[in-house]
Amino acid sequence: MDAALQLLRERGPQGVTMEAVALQSGCAKTTIYRRYRNRYELLRASLGFVEGIPEPPPDLSTRQRLHFLLGQFRQGLEEVVGLRALAALLRGDDDDPEFSRAFRESVLQPRIDVLLTALQEGIAVGDLRPDIDCPTVVSMLAGSFIARSAMQGTVPADWADTVLDTLWPAVAA
Question: Which residues belong to any copy of the HTH tetR-type domain (predicted)?
Answer without folding.
Answer: 1-54
